[in-house]
């Protein structure tokens, strides 16, 4: 599950509960509800920081829940349900009317990695935390919006190859070099502290949230097209 705390103009979304923060249907619903709440309460100059307690930022979809169904066909249906339920969470982050920061203070794997990538800025712990797309090792293909997000957010073809086809586990400093992360930090606490500082700095710019969201969508036309997020022109300047 997750909680949403408002500190002035800053929203702090925190994944809580079990250590791995698996994205079960209940957790996905909780995320979507929190993002909807943040959007409804947003004012000019808001920002969002997403973090988690424990060793994991998120270890992806709750495969144990899918496998508990018994039959392989029902397990596939459950996995498909999580894939489709998570799609609106990614859409909500890409269209959220405020800057977003992911404080990756632990491992981020599979859909957990995608959750982090759905933010504007990502900060990460230097050691004892990795980014990992586990699908090739698990024998699973990628949903269309997963690969579209990877192409949108990771510019290096070789980096995408190593991550998606090689199952490469990427640590903080390497993620910075690849252009995935803004910065790497020595501890979970320092990741969160730096992320909150960045969120506060971004909030101080007091940008128009609707304009910000539309510019974000225009930056990533491929993944927004896959998700069905249509861009629209907005003129909010009083100087025109």
TrEMBL record:
One of its GO terms (biological process) is fatty acid beta-oxidation. Keywords: Lipid metabolism. InterPro entries: ClpP/crotonase-like_dom_sf (IPR029045), Enoyl-CoA_hydra/iso (IPR001753). It holds the Pfam family ECH_1. It comes from the Eukaryota. The keyword Cytoplasm does not apply. GO terms for molecular function: delta(3)-delta(2)-enoyl-CoA isomerase activity. GO terms for cellular component: peroxisome. Pathway: Lipid metabolism; fatty acid beta-oxidation. Its EC number is 5.3.3.8. It catalyses: a (3E)-enoyl-CoA = a 4-saturated (2E)-enoyl-CoA; a (3Z)-enoyl-CoA = a 4-saturated (2E)-enoyl-CoA. PANTHER family: ENOYL-COA HYDRATASE-RELATED, ENOYL-COA HYDRATASE_ISOMERASE FAMILY PROTEIN. Belongs to the enoyl-CoA hydratase/isomerase family. This is Delta(3)-Delta(2)-enoyl-CoA isomerase. It comes from Carpinus fangiana.
């Amino acid at each position: 599950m997750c909680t949403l705390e408002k500190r002035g103009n800053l929203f702090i979304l925190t994944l809580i509960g079990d250590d791995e923060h698996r994205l079960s249907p209940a957790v996905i619903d909780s995320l979507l509800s929190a993002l909807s709440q943040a959007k409804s309460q947003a004012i000019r100059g808001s920002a969002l920081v997403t973090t988690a307690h424990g060793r994991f930022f998120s270890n992806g979809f709750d495969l144990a829940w899918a496998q508990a169904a018994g039959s392989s066909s029902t397990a596939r249906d459950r996995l498909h349900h999580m894939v489709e339920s998570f799609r609106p969470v990614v859409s909500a982050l890409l269209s959220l009317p405020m800057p977003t920061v992911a404080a990756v203070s632990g491992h981020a794997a599979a859909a957990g990695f995608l959750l982090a990538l759905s933010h504007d800025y990502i900060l990460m712990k230097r050691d004892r935390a990795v980014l990992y797309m586990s699908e090739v090792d698990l024998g699973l293909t990628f949903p269309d919006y997963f690969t579209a997000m990877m192409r949108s957010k990771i510019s290096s073809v070789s980096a995408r190859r190593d991550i998606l086809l090689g199952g490469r586990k990427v640590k903080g400093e390497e993620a910075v070099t690849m252009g995935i992360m803004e910065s790497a930090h020595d501890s979970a606490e320092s990741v969160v502290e730096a992320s909150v500082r960045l969120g506060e700095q971004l909030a101080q710019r007091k940008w128009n949230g609707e304009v910000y969201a539309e510019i974000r969508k225009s930056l990533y036309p491929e993944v927004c097209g896959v998700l069905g997020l249509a861009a629209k022109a907005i003129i909010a300047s009083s100087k025109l």
